[in-house]
Structure formats: structure tokens, C-alpha cells
User: Fold these one by one.
Assistant:
Number 1:
Amino acid sequence: MDWGMKNRLSQLIKPDGHCFFMPIDHGYFQGPTTGLENPAETIKPLLPYYDALFCTRGVLRSVIDAANTKPIILRVSGGTSMAGKDLADEGLTTSIEEIIRLNVSAVGVSVFVGSDYEKQTLLNLSNMVNLCENYGIPVMAVTAVGKELDKRDARYLALSCRIAAELGARVVKTYWCEEGFEKVVKGCPVPVVMAGGPKCESETDVFKFVYDGMQKGAIGINLGRNVWQSPHPLGVARALQAIIHENADAKKAQEIFQEVKSKGKK
């Protein structure tokens, strides 16, 4: 692995081998998502807790302070919306020149395995890997299932993650599943990061699934809505940081959350 690739990955994955990514890219298909109406305002108090930010070039340029931010993972696939026929019908939205110009640490591409656009999105990933490897820029594959949440089982996730790794992704973002998640991780030869998915019913549910996934081999999380849509985002972020980087279990994370909440910090 070249020095540039190692350097960028080391910005994203901390010395303990773990990571906490904060996605705010939802607007690329959802528009002004609740909690992200003003992305700069949303992330500012959370800055101390996450290790990298996952966003689009438009938000990066318009609202992210270039002098005071964390490493950036740039969303480079898209072209669909909630108003359209199929979210899986994605293309690549960003050139390699733009990626280099923005000086990002990595890029993220969604793949929709099993959809009508499986081949198209897998080739999107392959093409981006071909471009980025020339410049030492890691590609994170996002194993998206869209509205077909019934596909979110270990067999499907293991298939998606392995294919993404085989095509050259340096990191794979996927969903946690209650049964067999360790098989998903074990079958993927590159690091696995857990997605948050739809907002959980409680903070306790978030802490439990994140802790379970970390115990089963994930290196970290890429959670957005379950943090910044919470009534107490600082408490959630601090508790998740403790699970990821301080080996806290779900019970300890809940205690940390309550402590931050009791101090009146949202």
C-alpha cells in the first residue's frame, strides 16, 4: 500500500483501529432532511466526538469550515431522489479532478446488490476504484438496500460486502443485523463500518446494536440520524464515542448519555 493511501486511511481509522464517521449526505436524495436543514449548525457541537464527516461536495463547499473540520469522506454517487422511481438508479456525480481539488480523505459510493441496477452500481464502484487508486484515495462502498429492508439479513449483507471488497473497496459500510453479523464481517476481507439506517426507537437500542456489532468485528460506525435527530445529540455522540474508542458496553454508554443529558447539554 502506497504512503498516500496509508496516510488517508490513518486519518479515518484511529490508532486503536476504530472509527466514528458522521454522515450528513442525506440531502442528496432526501432534500432538507429533518435535523439537517442547516448542516453547519448541526455538526458544530458534535465536532469533538466524530472522526470523519461523510458529505457531498455542495455541502462541503458551502457550509463546512475549511480551517476547522475533521477528515472528509466525499459522497460521489447519486442522481436519484425520493420523488423518483428507484433510488438504486445511481451514477457517479463527481470527477477525480474534483475529488483531488477538494483534498478529501476518501470517497463513498453506493451499491445496490440484487436490485435492477446491480450491475450499474457495481460498475460505478469499480470505475471509482480504478480512478482513485491512481491517486492513493480510498473508496468506501455503501451497501444500500433502499426501501427493501427485508433484504437486510446476514446472507444478503455478506454477499454485498464481499462483492464490494472484491471490486476494490478499501472500507465497506453496511447494516448491522441481529443474527449472523459476525459472518458478515468475517466474510469481508476489508474493514466493515456499521450504518445507522432508519432512526431507532430509543438511544438504548442504538447503544445495544453498536456495541454488539463492535464485539462481532466491525471497526466502527457511520451514524447520522440516530445522533443528530435525537433530542439529545451530544449525549448520544459522547456515548457512541465511548463504545467505539473506550471499550464501553451498552450499559456504560447509557450511563454516559444520562450524565451528559443531566448536565443540560443537548
Number 2:
Amino acid sequence: MNLSNIKNEALLQNTKNLIKEENRLLAKILAHFLEIDARKLYLEMGYGSLFLLAVKELGYSEASAQRRIEAMRFLKRTPEAGPMVEKGNLNLSNLSLLERVSREAQATHAQSVDALNLLQARPASAAEAETKLRQHFGLKNKKRIVQIEMDEETYQLWQKTKQQLATPRDAEAIKKLCEALPKTNSQTKVRQSPEGRIAGRVLRRTLLNQAEHRCEYVSPITNRRCDNTHFLECDHKVPYFLGGKTLQQNMRVLCSEHNKFVCQEWRGRS
């Protein structure tokens, strides 16, 4: 499929139309999963569970099958979610998350509906959504499993460190070490050279706080500000390569992608 000749406006509109169709298809697929489950069709087909049918007969990966089954179960208990899926207000990941957390909380139907509305109120990352739901249901924060690979010398050093900290548990030892790190003095001022290219620690912190730790790029077409809160960089409004100074009034916060995008635009003009 060659899309290189399509104008930007048409490309964007076509994508939006396809996403609407994708949302409608997801709603239909989950409805079919519901009916297959209700008829226990997987048993007739010789599978011991809907999960096995989804993987072996329908061709889903195990993770994809699990997400759709969890989403289907939440829809079964909370049919109010159905129209939201079709409209694109609720994605597969959040549906799956709603099922897992509400099941853990043994939520009533009313509580599940409240949780559903909570996730709809403001778009959030998967981690933020899970934190909001766990707080909503009064559940403890989920523990994370982190695997660390180390050589034998580092491992022995880590064992000695745990002994010195008087804790045999890795998580507790890491927490103690993190809490023992020296706190940075926010009052310490470091002179920022206007001629230097890189924003210093104090200036960077000032810019991030001013931007509320969010990319400050605003689209000249839609007037929409970027939502990205990750990979933030300090950028010169008047580029450094055109003589722009590293001063607060000439600096802003951009995500790495918008920083590259703006730089390319400037270089195209010069």
C-alpha cells in the first residue's frame, strides 16, 4: 500500500476513519466472544477453555487472547462499557485492567460502573490507570517484579551490602539505600552561562516546573498542546545554532520527538 502521495489532511482523516472502524470491530469481536462463551462453543470444538480456542482456533497470541477474554468478562458484568468501546472511549488495555482490578476488589456492579467512569474522565497511561483504580477500590499498590542480571563479583558485593544493612530481602535493602541517598539542596544556585549550549541543573529544574513537567509544543494547526511527560528536553526558542542564548526567557521544554521536529523546521528555513 503506497500512501506517500496522500495529502496530510486526507492521511489524518483516513486514519481517524480506520480507528473508528477498528473500535467498532473490537466491540463486535468482544460481542462474539460473549456469545461463544455463553454457548460454551469451545467445548463442542474440543477445547477445554475459551482461552485455548482463542489461541489454537482463532490464532491469537496468548497475551492477546487473555486481554480479550478479560475485556469480555468485564463487558458481561458491566454492559455499560459496550457503547464506550464502540465509540473509542475505552480501549482494550483499560477493559482488561478494569476486569483484573475489579475482580481482585470483588467489586459490585455499581462500583465497577464508578471505576469505568473514573477511567473515562481523563486519559491516563496504563500505570496511572492502574494506580487510580487500586486507590479507588482501596487496594494495596501492586508489587512489581524486577529481574536484575549481575556477575558473580557484583552478586557477592550485594550480599555483603545486605548484611551491612541488616536485611536479607532485596526490596528492603534497595529501599534503604535509596532513602540513604543525600538529598539535593534546592537552594544551591549554579551560575548558568548564556553562552553554554546545555541548560544546567538549576535552569532545567526551573523550566520543568514552569512547564509542569510536560512538553510545551503547541500545534499551530489545532492549537493543541502535546501531552507527553516523558523524554523531556530543554530547547532554545531561538536555536543555539542561530545565536540563541541559554537564558530562561529563550528556553522551553519539549519532548524529544518535538525537539527533533522543531529543529528540522528551523534548519529547513535557514
Number 3:
Amino acid sequence: MQSNRNNSLEPISISNWRWAYFLDETIKKFSIFGPSPYPINNAFLFRESLFGSRSNPKKVILETWGLKTEKIRQARCACLQAGEITSVMNLVISPCNNYDLPFFGADFVTLPNGHLIALDLQPALKDDITHTQHVWDKLKPIHANWQSKLPPGGDIPSEAIQYFSPAFLWSRIPLGEEGDKLISQIIKPAFGEYLNCFFDLVRDAKMISKERSFKMLNGQKEYMRYRAEKDPARSMLRGFFGETWTERYINNILFDLK
């Protein structure tokens, strides 16, 4: 299979990708902001490989979608499908540092033992009330409503806590009919409300001072460094596509702010 995508903004072409609805909703929300493609090398727009036994090989496909707008430095989504075994949506929306905005992050992962759901508006400066309080005031009621309807996701590593908000939606959902129902009835509307909250913030955001922009940039870089160093998908991607390609992808595409 070859992809006909010429830039990162063109629709992905993975058939039966489990998480397509969520990327489609994101694309719709961006349409009014005059998006343009985020520059992504063709080597990372589309990648295909085989895994499993020689007698019964399985295909894995990874495509990367991306854009930029006046207030968004980079929005990008890593979309992966490995047969019926693994399906991944890793979506991060990174604002320009001259606006006082959080990151939007959604990690939806299907594994043989269930679905992992992570959804948040993540702070660049967690201890800065100006940066966080108005966001959390809007987001906490949304989180309280939907998290109460989901099974818990488990403990968060202590070193990671500073990169999440108090409204971090985190769940482990079973496979099968029960999980499909939770995704349809809980995750879809929850995602929509988090996304609406984020885009309301983007719409209302005003440019900040150069001094504060510099502070925001440092916080964003620290966040990106942490995400690149601790990316839980690293071992899986290495197994599918090799170490060299994976490290370039993680450090130069997924978390490229240095």
C-alpha cells in the first residue's frame, strides 16, 4: 500500500482505523481557523511495515496528520493501526508561545488487554496561576462528570504529575461490547467537551508580553523534552519500524520543540 497524501493536512488513508471519529472532529474544529499544513517530511507522513511470524505476517501502518494556525504552532496526530491487535491515536496540539494557552493532549490506545484513554489540557507552567486557574475552572466540572462514569486508569508516575492538570481524564477500558459502549457513550462526548473548551480558549487568547512569551517557551520546551524522553510508544515503534527511524520520529516530528 502507498499513500497519496502530499502534505500533513490531507486526510489519512488507514481503513478501519478505530479512532478516526476523534481526528475527524478535531479537523472540523480547526476548519474555521484557516489551517495550513505543518511541514512533515514524506518519510514520516506514511510508514508501513510487517510484523509477526514469517508464516503469518501482519501489516502495520502509521500516518501522521498535522497543521498550524495563527495561534497554534503545531497540531499533529500519530495514527497507527496494526491489524486487530493495536490501534493508536496520539494527538497533541501545541500553541504558539506568545499566547497563554495549554497543550491539548489525547492518547487513545488499543492493546490486546484493553483500551487506554488519556485526555487533558496540559499546562506548560503548572505552578503559574495566571496560566492555569481559568483553564481548570472551566475543565474541572467537565472532568468530574465524565471520569465518574469510567473505570480508573491507575496510578500516575510521580515524575509525570507536573505535566497533567487536575482534570486529567484517565481510564482503562475493556475490549469488546462493554468497551465499545463506553467509547461511544462516554469518550466521544467527553472528547467533544474537552475539545470545545480548548478551542474556546484559543478563540479568546490574546498575545502576551515578550517576557511572558519567553517563560511560556521554556515551559513548553520542558514539556516536550519530557514527552520525548518518556514516550511509552517508543518500544512498540522500534519493534515495528526500527530504532533509527523511531528516534527521528519521536524527536523531530512528535515532540520537535527544542
